[in-house]
Design brief:
Number of strands of chain A: 12
Radius of gyration of chain B: 13 Å
Strand content of chain A: over 45%
Largest sheet of chain A: 6 strands, mixed
Distance between the termini of chain B: 37 Å
Number of helices of chain A: 0
Order of helices and strands of chain B: EEEEEEEEEEE
Oligomer: heterodimer
Shape of chain B: globular
Strand content of chain B: over 45%
Helix content of chain A: under 10%
Order of helices and strands of chain A: EEEEEEEEEEEE
Shape of chain A: globular
């Protein structure tokens, strides 16, 4: 069965610090990978996605993620976080079929 | 374009009562999904409709949960009778018809259910 593991449940950073959120998945076949974000009081929205091609994916708001197939990983990065990046981040995987599986989420708090 | 809408946004009910959650997907989206997030846990898949048919209901916790999608449009998720452990946020999501492995799903704001 597919599963998604997010390494950190809570992350606290100061503004301008660099961010990397870990995500590993278990599925042996072709996958589509996503990062979703939920800002306080808002609904889940797509941050970026990987389907195929360049394993380094650029998303909105300066986020990027790198798909490393050999490590079954899809880590999210941002070189310099802002206070407005405070949110909960979810890694998600879609393998064979239609079901998308989510990780437990990482709560990021950025100190101004 | 309207997004996925869910109603009610919040519901507080007593154990043993019934609650019905409604989801209106994005117009034209054949795929509709229900997910649930219990406090602090991952977002768990409940089921998937393609139009009015249940494609995958492997995530439904037990027979107290009943999902329908009449006419392939909006969907309802009924919990009867509700138990304390049913508390959480119920998310609905939809994606277009050609939803093979490549489609993004779009989420509603969720329905917060509290069972007391």
């Amino acid at each position: 069965a597919q599963s998604v593991s997010q390494h950190n449940h809570h992350v606290i950073l100061s503004e301008a610090a660099s961010l990397e959120l870990g995500c590993n998945y278990s599925y042996g076949g072709t996958v589509n990978l996503f990062w979703y974000v939920q800002y306080p009081g808002q609904h889940l929205q797509l941050l970026l996605k990987y389907f195929s091609g360049d394993p380094l994916v650029k998303g909105i708001k300066g986020f990027e993620a790198e798909f490393i197939k050999s490590k079954f990983s899809f880590n999210l990065r941002k070189p310099s976080v802002q206070w407005s990046d405070t949110a909960e981040y979810f890694c998600a995987v879609k393998g064979g079929g239609f079901k998308t599986i989510f990780g437990a989420g990482t709560r990021l708090f950025v100190k101004a | 374009e309207a997004g996925v809408t869910q109603f009610p946004s919040h519901s507080v009910i007593e154990k043993g009562q019934t609650v019905t959650l409604r989801c209106d997907p994005i117009s034209g989206h054949d795929n509709l999904y229900w997910y649930r997030r219990v406090m602090g846990k991952e977002i768990k898949f409940l089921l998937h409709f393609v139009k009015e048919s249940k494609q995958d209901e492997s995530g439904m916790p037990n027979n107290r949960f009943l999902a329908e999608r009449t006419g392939g449009t909006y969907s309802t998720l009924k919990v009867q009778p509700a138990e304390l452990e049913d508390s959480g946020v119920y998310f609905c999501a939809s994606s277009p018809r050609s939803g093979g492995s490549g489609n993004t799903i779009y989420f509603g704001e969720g329905s917060w259910l509290t069972v007391v």
